[in-house]
Amino acid sequence: TVVEQAAFELSGMTQIPARQESSAPQQQKLEEQQDASRGGGETTVGWVLKTRRWRRTTTTTRRKRGDVVVNRFVPHAAPWFYGMIGRFVQKKDDTALWARGANGARLLSRFLTTLACLVECLSSSSSLVVVELTALARDLVEFAWSFSTTNDTELRSSVLLALSVGFSHLRVESAAELLLQSSMHGLPQTLHQIAMDDSNPRCRDLASNVLKSFEGMKFMLQGV
Question: Contact, 188 vs 207, CB < 8 A?
Fold first, then answer.
């Protein structure tokens, strides 16, 4: 989306790795990624995860060269993130937007993916934004989890992507505290079921990745 592209450019990520392999117009490639998700092919999920790996490599290379890495997205992250959620709250009962079967699910899927992108772009900054990053990551996880019961594969994939991005930017103590909240009840069990039984390989992989992030907090999650 335009929002995702702007966030990447402001954060210093002027290239998007999953889109470098094709010379097709940018919008066409985005549509191809969206369409492919229903068949288990390359998706914006893969794009975001590849971007994370690419960002770490690129940032490290820049620092070794002595380049100054400036994330100009930092002052925009929270206003954009909470602005989008605020608009969703205002429009969540608008059946013309959301209650349209596969199209409604696809729109919500893109919405969650964009939120995950905003959090990921903020994370490329220095440790000075750790408090803000933690807040956005927590709220991303809680917001995404509210759609975990969906039967739509594309939307479920985006929910799992948002959970993966959110938990990856939470310290063990913060993640454990979040999981102990009543609103997050059953999350580990749901992820385990998806990782074992989901018909979509991308969903299984994402669920497994999130579960791995819980390994360091087992002693804090007794009974969850």
Answer: no
